[in-house]
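Sequence, please.
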C-alpha cells in the first residue's frame, strides 16, 4: 500500500505522482491510445443512442412508461454500481484482461438486446450490458495513467475528455439516423446492432494493441467494502432513476434517507482496512491528493448539469416542440463537432497554460454562453429557431471542451500507478451518479413547469430548458471558483 503519495504542498510536480522510482511509463502511441478509448466511446454512444430509441421501443414492445425508463436506467445502474470494483479488479488481475472480458460481454449482450422478443428480455440485456461496461471502462483512464506522462498524458487526457463528452452527441446523431432510416422491422433494434458492429473490431484491436498493465501488491479484494459501496450506490441511484416514473413512493424516500448512512459505513470500513495495513477498495490516501479531492466536487457540478441539459433537451425538442429525433440530433451536431475539435486543441494548450487556467477559462466561457443561450430560448419560446439555437450551442461547446479534458488531467496528475484503477473507477462512478442526479432534478423541474400550466404548447418545455441552462451556468461559475483552488502548475 502506498501511503506517501500525498503531496506536502500545493505544487503539482510530476515526480511525486510516480512515487516509487523505476523506469518511465512505456507510452501508448496513437494506435494503442485509440484502442484504449474505444471502450469509453462504445459505452457512451450506446447509452445516448438507446435514450433516443426509448419511445420507439415502447411502441414496438408495448412497454409502459416505467418499463421504458428502465431500458435506460438499468444500464446506468449496472454501469455505475460495480465501476469501482471493475477498476480494482483491473489493478489486481490486469487491465487488459478486464478490458477484453468487458468488451466481449458488452458486444454479446448488445446482440441480445437487438434480438429481444419482449421488454423483460431487453431490460435484462441492458442491465448486463451496463455491468460489462463497468468492467472495461475503468481500464481506459487507468491504462492512460499507468502508461503515459508529461505531454503524452496531456494529449491522451484531452482525447479522453473529447470522447467522454462528444460521444453523447454522436450517439444521439447515430440514433436519429438509424431511427429515421427506412429499414425493415423495428428500427430501434438497429441501435443495438450498431453496438455489435462497433464492438467486434474494437475487441480485435484490443487483442492486438492494448498493453497489459496492473498494480503490484497484494492480490486481495475488499468484498465487504464492495458490498457496502454497491448498496450505497443502489440506494442513491435506484430512486433517482425510477422515482419520477413511479410517482415517488415511500420506499424511494427511505432508500434516499439510507444513502448517507451507507456511504459513511463504507468510508469507515475503508479507513479501518487502511489503518490495519490491508487493501481497501478505495485507498484513503487517494483523497489526500488535493487536485483529486477538489476534482470530484467539480466533476459532480459538471456532470449533473450536463445530464440535466441532455435530458431536458431531448424531451423539450421532441415532445414539446415536435422535432423528429433526426432534427434534434442534427441541431446538436455542431456542438459535438466543436467540442471534439477544441478538446484536442486543449491537450496542446495544457502543458503551456496549465490545467487550472484552462478550467477557469472554460467555466467563464460556459457560464456566459449558457446565459445568453438561455435568454434566447426563453424569448423565442415555442417558436425556437433551430439555426439560432445550434449556433449558440457551438460557443457552449468551446467552454465545455475546456472543462472536461483538463479536469481529468488535473485530477490524475498526482495519482500514482498503484492507485490508477481505483482513481478511475471512483471518478467515473461519481460522473454516472451525478448524471443520474441531474436527470432527476431536471425531471422534477419539467414536472413543475407543466403542472397546471395554461401556456401554449411547447412554451412550458422551452421555459424549463431555459431555467435548466441558467442553473447550468451557475454550476459553471462554481466550477471556475473551485478551479482557482487547484495548484497553479
Amino acid at each position: 500500500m502506498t501511503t506517501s503519495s500525498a503531496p506536502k504542498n500545493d505544487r503539482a510536480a510530476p515526480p511525486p505522482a510516480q512515487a516509487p522510482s523505476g523506469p518511465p511509463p512505456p507510452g501508448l502511441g496513437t494506435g494503442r491510445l485509440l484502442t484504449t478509448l474505444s471502450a469509453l466511446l462504445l459505452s457512451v454512444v450506446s447509452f445516448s443512442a438507446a435514450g433516443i430509441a426509448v419511445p420507439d421501443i415502447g411502441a414496438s414492445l408495448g412497454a409502459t412508461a416505467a418499463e421504458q425508463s428502465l431500458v435506460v436506467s438499468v444500464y446506468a445502474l449496472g454501469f455505475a454500481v460495480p465501476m469501482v470494483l471493475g477498476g480494482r479488479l483491473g489493478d489486481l488481475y490486469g487491465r487488459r484482461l478486464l478490458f477484453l472480458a468487458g468488451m466481449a460481454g458488452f458486444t454479446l449482450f448488445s446482440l441480445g438486446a437487438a434480438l429481444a422478443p419482449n421488454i423483460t428480455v431487453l431490460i435484462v440485456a441492458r442491465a448486463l450490458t451496463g455491468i460489462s461496461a463497468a468492467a472495461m471502462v475503468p481500464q481506459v483512464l487507468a491504462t492512460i495513467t499507468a502508461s503515459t506522462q508529461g505531454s503524452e498524458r496531456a494529449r491522451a487526457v484531452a482525447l479522453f475528455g473529447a470522447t467522454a463528452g462528444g460521444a453523447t452527441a454522436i450517439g444521439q446523431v447515430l440514433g436519429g439516423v438509424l431511427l429515421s432510416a427506412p429499414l425493415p422491422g423495428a428500427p430501434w433494434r438497429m441501435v443495438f446492432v450498431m453496438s455489435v458492429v462497433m464492438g467486434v473490431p474494437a475487441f480485435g484491436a484490443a487483442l492486438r494493441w492494448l498493453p497489459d498493465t496492473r498494480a503490484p501488491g497484494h492480490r486481495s479484494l475488499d468484498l465487504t467494502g464492495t458490498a457496502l459501496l454497491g448498496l450505497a450506490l443502489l440506494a442513491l441511484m435506484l430512486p433517482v432513476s425510477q422515482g419520477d416514473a413511479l410517482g415517488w413512493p415511500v420506499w424511494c424516500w427511505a432508500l434516499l434517507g439510507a444513502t448517507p448512512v451507507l456511504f459513511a459505513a463504507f468510508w469507515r470500513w475503508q479507513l479501518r482496512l487502511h489503518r490495519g495495513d490491508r487493501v481497501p477498495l478505495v485507498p484513503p490516501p487517494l483523497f489526500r491528493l488535493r487536485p483529486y479531492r477538489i476534482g470530484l466536487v467539480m466533476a459532480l457540478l459538471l456532470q449533473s448539469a450536463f445530464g440535466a441539459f441532455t435530458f431536458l433537451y431531448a424531451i423539450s425538442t421532441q415532445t414539446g416542440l415536435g422535432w423528429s429525433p433526426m432534427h434534434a440530433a442534427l441541431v446538436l451536431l455542431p456542438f459535438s463537432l466543436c467540442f471534439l475539435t477544441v478538446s484536442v486543441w486543449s491537450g496542446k494548450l495544457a502543458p503551456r497554460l496549465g490545467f487550472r487556467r484552462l478550467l477557469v477559462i472554460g467555466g467563464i466561457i460556459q457560464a456566459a454562453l449558457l446565459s445568453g443561450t438561455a435568454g434566447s430560448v426563453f424569448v423565442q419560446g415555442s417558436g425556437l429557431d433551430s439555426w439560432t439555437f445550434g449556433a449558440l450551442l457551438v460557443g457552449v461547446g468551446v467552454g465545455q471542451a475546456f472543462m472536461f479534458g483538463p479536469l481529468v488531467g488535473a485530477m490524475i496528475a498526482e495519482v500514482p500507478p498503484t492507485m490508477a484503477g481505483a482513481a478511475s473507477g471512483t471518478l467515473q462512478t461519481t460522473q454516472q451518479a451525478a448524471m443520474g442526479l441531474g436527470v432527476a432534478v431536471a425531471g422534477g423541474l419539467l414536472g413543475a413547469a407543466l403542472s397546471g400550466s395554461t401556456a401554449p404548447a411547447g412554451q412550458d418545455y422551452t421555459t424549463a430548458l431555459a431555467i435548466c441552462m441558467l442553473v447550468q451556468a451557475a454550476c459553471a461559475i462554481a466550477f471556475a471558483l473551485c478551479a482557482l483552488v487547484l495548484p497553479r502548475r
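The radius of gyration is 22 Å.
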